[in-house]
Amino acid sequence: MLDKNKVIIIGGGIAGKLAARVLSNYYKEIMIIEQDSEVSSPAPRKGAPQGNHIHALLHAGEHGLEELFPGITEKFQSTGAVVINSTKDLAWHHHGVWKLRYDGSYTTTLQTRPHLEWHINQYIIQDKNIIIQYNQSVKKFIYDEVKNRITGIELKNGSVIHADLVVDASGASSFSHRWLTEKGIHIPAEQVKIDLTYVSQIVELPENDDRDWTIKLLYPNPPHEKMAGSISRVEGNRYLVTFIGYHDSITSKEKITSLVELAKKLSKSDIYHELQNANPVTDISIYRVPHITWRKIDKVKNLPEGLLMIGDTICRIDPFFGQGMSIAVVEALALKGILETQSQENIAQKFHQEAAKIIAPIWNMVLTEDFRYPETTGKKPLGLPILQWYAKNVFLLSGKDEKIYDSFIKVMNLKRPMTILMKPRIVFEVLKCSFKKSAE
After folding, report:
1. Structural contact between residues 162 and 151, judged by C-beta atoms closer than 8 angstroms
2. What would the mean pLDDT of 112-141 be, rounded to a whole number?
3. Which of 165, 265, 369, 422 is the 20 to 30 A CA-CA neighbour of 122?
């Protein structure tokens, strides 16, 4: 159904390529404008500095990616990615308790972001409708002020490219936000300061028959604990080690020369012991996220037609919870649904409304945890103390009640809404758990 001519996508990261895949069925030409150089192997790129750190496709993201790129999961695994039983091969210490470990029949694929992004790209370059222009940046939009419509872009090299639709997938610091602000177009936004720091390194570990996990997560018990640690097997029989700190628990002035020193600061010594005999494969990478932002594009009254935003361009969520890539996948599926079932008029407006519905519950879920730290600043979700109390008890119960943990897994992986955690049985168990703690 190729009844439109051209789409320009600003940004060739994951969100941009997902949008390209969906739109290529409806437009004759998709042109991706990417500021980075073309890569010839799965390697980190300058435009995605977060790519050196731990990434995860949640179940909704992995299943959605398979829908968009049939066979890609097998490609991941046949080239070294590690498939695990999500509840059996994961050792997860969370809010002071270990999660239950059992065979829940869920699977998760462990891999580095460059490996994942490389395979998405291999599908994209096979699509004859999609062209990628590397080493290019946008100078300005071509704007029809009378019609209030974006009709194309001008590149910094002077080239002018016209299009029926321009998609901004360039991330949190996108060109569109600056351009709209300069035009006096107000974008309502929520911004929350979290002062998050990531520190990561890929290492090799000696074989150990006692190692009964494939990925281990040591999450903090807020508010007195602010650091988390993870160690995950990835492609190449290597392990990606990541430490995450909120609110200067890993300070910007700290010179980090060894992950062992960071491991000592965790409440549990599991990762510290693993690193004693680790052999570093890469340099240490550091990435900082001072704040998270949700730009309410759906609320902009005079947004120019012909401009669609997706992924981090709309919402940069706390990466600690591993939801960013999966949100982008779910958004791409929402775009696909709009194109399949509705008129192609006002695509952007319809999409921004659907994206807001996707983001809202996840945003509130993330803030429920971020605001456990008094240093976190920003707009708090309605009923925050009750949400935090309830969530805390669900976390504790997921260490001993398989059915509650199973429900939590579905919510965490964006497969079911949070309302399933409000079933009468779970509410009863939460109340019982709370009363028991009060009596102790």
Report:
1. yes
2. 96
3. 165
Please check whether residue 50 is in contact with residue 283, taking contact to mean a CB–CB distance below 8 angstroms.
no
| Encoded tokens for 242 | 């990541």
Which tokens belong to 22?
């969906």
Predicted TM-score (pTM) of the model is 0.95
Q: Which residue in 204, 268, 208 sits closest to 235, CA to CA?
A: 204
Task: Look at residue 1 and tell me whether its pLDDT is greater than 50.
Answer: no
| d(C-alpha 139, C-alpha 36), whole Å | 16
Q: Is 299 left (phi over 0), alpha (psi -120 to 50) or beta?
A: alpha
Q: Using an 8 Å Cβ cutoff, are 102 and 206 in contact?
A: no
Hey, what amino acid is at 134? Y
Largest distance between two CA atoms of the chain = 72
Mean pLDDT in residue range 40-62 = 87
What's the rounded mean pLDDT across residues 377-406? 96
Neighbours of 387 (CB within 10 A): 19
